[in-house]
Amino acid sequence: MSRPVNPMRIFFGIAAGAVALTASIAHAQDYPARPIRMLVGLGVGGAADTTARLLAQQLSIDLGQNIVVDNRPGASGVIAYERVATSAPDGYTLGMVTAAVTTLPFLQAKLPYDIQRDLQPVALATTSSHVFLVHPSVKANTISELIALASANPGKLSYASTGIGSAQHMAGEYFNFLAKTNIVHVPYKGGAEGVRATLAAEVGVTFGSLVAATALINAGKLRALGITGTKRSPLLPSVPTISEAGLPGYESIAWYGVVAPAAMPKPLVARLNQAIVKAGQAAELRDAYHKLGLEPQTHTPQQFADLIRSELAKNKKIVAQAGIQVK
Asked: Nearest-CA neighbor of 162 among 252, 52, 39, 46?
């Protein structure tokens, strides 16, 4: 026999929830009252660090408090992400994550955090595409020709990336997956090293930064066959996307977003999301992003969460198909 419903218990439960919600909204309105720390899991000078510092500068103006960028490189960002996940959910410790965060769960057997359980998406800050580059000695002038060349010579072509599980690595393996090719992955310690290896013809292919590659393309030192995103880049308007150039449905982007501890109140998440979106639309920050080949985003927290979910599903398939393992 079920117990009778206690009206007073229901009343006090609703009242307690209302008080908590009111307190959360009040906190969001008063926020921030002191400097905010933004952890970056990679070293100074990379795209994640640059995005964080440019965003922090504009946010400091808009929010009236300093945003301190704190680089905690190591373990592919895991050190920084764990620190964010275990921090107080008060909005004063945030993290800048990259697309690689959705590959890590399938490369490391046991992470000290769960991206969907322990980290809360706040805002997608920027996205960027890579450019598919080949050495002039590679006898292919289009993506279709490259696929034909790789198909006829399985395992003979190789491509450079910035490391196992990196955005470039996923871009290359997704290309192999869709094109049914076997272009061999060669990891390097950074984007500059990968480009130098391609310039020296140590590898035939690399996925380069749009900004860094432009001068090399114009000088004829490397040839651009396609853009990895869904639209052409203003930096290289004559270069088609990989999808339109011979591999329909291909898309691989790098992205950088802000996360917080999972228990951070929703009103505070909304407050931060609105501030980050507003900052990205400021003319000075937007122009600074564009010069680096970065596109500011206006995602809601839910849209950012949906992106993370879809990227996890996609990368799980890619890692399994390619048999990727951390050595």
From this structure: 46
User: Are 126 and 296 in contact, with CB atoms under 8 Å apart?
Assistant: yes
Domain 35-128+253-322 shares a fold with domain 129-227? yes
Confidence (pLDDT) at 324: 87
> Contact 98/256 with Cβ under 8 angstroms?
yes
pLDDT of residue 43: 87
Cβ-contact 205, 176 below 8 angstroms: no
Other beta carbons within 10 angstroms of residue 144's beta carbon come to 14
- Distance of alpha carbon 321 from alpha carbon 111, whole angstroms: 22
pLDDT at 267: 97
Class (C level, CATH) for 35-128+253-322 = alpha beta
Question: Which stretches of the chain are DSSP H helices?
Answer: 7-30, 47-63, 78-85, 115-118, 143-152, 167-179, 191-199, 210-218, 266-281, 283-291, 301-322
- 17 has a pLDDT exceeding 60: no
Query: Which residues touch 83 (CB under 8 Å, ≥6 apart)?
Result: 39, 72, 93, 95
The reported pLDDT for the residue numbered 222 is 97
Superfamily assignment of 129-227 in CATH?
Periplasmic binding protein-like II (3.40.190.10)
- In which band, very low, low, confident or very high, does the pLDDT at 75 lie, cut at 50, 70 and 90? confident
Count H helices, E strands: the chain? 11, 10
